[in-house]
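A common beginner's mistake is to predict each chain separately and then try to dock the pieces by hand. The better habit, illustrated here, is to supply every component at once so that their relative placement is modeled jointly.
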Amino acid sequence: MVTRRTLLQGSAAILAAPALISRANAQSKFDWQQCKGQTVVVTMSKNPRADTLQKYQKEFEALTGIKVDSEQMPEQQQRSKAILELSTGRPSFDVLHYSLHVSKRIIGQGKWLEDLRPYVANAALTAPDFDFTDFSPSSRTTATQPDGRMDSLPLESDFWLIYVNKKLFADKGIKMPTTFDEMLTAARALTDKSSQTYGFVGRGLRNANVPVWTNFLLGQNQETITPDAHTLLTDTPQAIAAAEMYKSIMRDSAPPGVVGFNWNECQTSFMQGKVAMWMDGVGFTPPLVDKTKSKIADQVGFVTMPAGPTGHGCSVFTDAVGVTSQSKVKNAAYLYCQWATGKQMLLNMVRAGGGASPRLSTYQDQGLMANSPFGQEWLGTLLASAKIARSGLPEIIPVNEFRDTFGVALTNMIGGADAATELKKATENFKPILEKSLQG
Amino acid sequence: MSHAATTVVPASNAAARPSSRNYARSYWLFILPAGIVVAAVIVFPWIFTLFMSLQDFHVGGAMRFVGLANYERMLSDDRFIWAIIRTFYFTALAVIFPTLIGVAAAVCFNKHFPLRGLARTIFILPMMATPVAIALVWTMMFHPQLGVLNYLLTSVGLPPSTWVYDSATVIPTLVMVETWQWTPLIMLIVLGGLASLPQDPYEAAALDGASGWQAFRHITLPLVWPFIMVALVLRAVDALKAFDTIFVITGGGPGTSSETLNLYLYQEAFSYYDIGYASAIVVVFFILIMAVTLVLMGTRKKAKAA
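With all components supplied together, the output reads:
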């Protein structure tokens, strides 16, 4: 029996056919098999993006005839391993998947990855439907070094937002916060220490905690460093006000021991229904809405980062892929990067909840949320976040020292230390490190 | 046979041998492979580390000779000084507790009782587990809200603890994990010592009317002391260079409150990529470990001589 749904589906398929055929023709003109028989070694940080790439890896191998040898490592270990290998001049991999907010500048300084501009401009190497202009201008800027070299292709943008437990809000009749003041008030109201339920959780662990503070700082319409990356803005009245907010919410409304919490402890507390709000990156969504892992899979809500007194922003962290300068199979490695950041793969990544796509076309795709466990609320929050996203960490070489130095200051604040004193001390400690890095 | 062989050698030949054939020279060939390996994996890295400790070198940057500047920097580096203090604090606790419990356990397991073999096997299980794996399990158990340890505490009416999530309790908690894992090693070493003790002194003491405690204090302890010292040296060196458990459970936090020297030098080398300074810390760390080991070995010699 032909149902109305079957008819509609059939009609849609007929209407879509010309587009599909045109796309297939465009694809067929491009020689994906030009590096057939070569092997590309890929090193990746362990995260949902890497999972998606590995899941579809066989499709790439079938398309190109290139064999992919990929590995995932915990990000802390992968970051240092990759940098040390690159610095030796003989890395064991051809493609590097890395976090721009951590390693961009040190990789740029060493010129360890290929400048991909000539590759993108080369019609023999880049498929016509790759459409580089489809990447958002901000993601292209982020993937470009200060000297103009674009040594990676953006893979994912991780926007920070607030995960909420809707049931806890509904039980107390509290509305979702739109400003940081409302968030602090709601967090206090939702905290019930007798039942071990807390209004808020965020990273307290040194180093990991800095982005929580910088999100509050964006609400003061300020970043941590001047645009030329030469002068610290970490002890200004705005920075201190943001730190006071961090201190207040972490001391008053977060679980005991939060000073040692990284994202995984926060996630565990939130998934067990013990916390009303969790501030972190959108890439952590999948387990929250997975009924086999989360007790509150049906109660998870997504709220755009609240506005501060003088600004409204959320921090964004970008992952990228690049081709090592020492690779002996550069073209094959570039084909892999092109495939990984192509329209279809980024669509797959967003559908898997691995984060936000840097491509504009991803969000115009009608089937984006079909059968997705995340829903329109998640997508709406993601799109709203994209409009207010700003850098959450300074783009400098000693970014790890920055995170450690200010991370210690923030943990001290959770212990009760004065925010202004801690920030001034951290700024003084970090200044010589920054100055030395600028001297090269 | 051998007697015949020695008597048939003419006296003149025997007298000439030492001057005409120097066997010692040909023996060098035999130790050459081992010598090359030692030079490649121990001597060269050490000389290279010493060389790097005199340089200002960040990964990706230029290398510049700075003499002893890296060592001077340590004197004004609070984080380094606190890391040393924490290292000794952690080591002291991580040696004392496993030793006390390990010796007590060895004395117990030296007695005959039903299912002794099974009990011994269960006791040494923690030592056989992979440190990273057990560190991950402990991390889950320490979770202040959802960990099983706080559940147990509150079940018996005790207040919950923040375990490794508090600067005040983090090192004692890490010592607890170390004690759990490495007490069996002390027990095994001391148990070996106890098994080798003669029975005569105990029989004589029993005839003289010595109590169990007196026999332990005046016979067992002095005789088994050299074994305890060996266990102490091994445990102290192990605790000084503890890394995996601390790295996985706390990463040196909260703040830097569990950051030992090992973790600090890891941060300098592999997070800040400051290879010159990290090499200088390695040199100082090596000297510290050598000093502690020599002191303990000296004490052991004295105990043996006494």
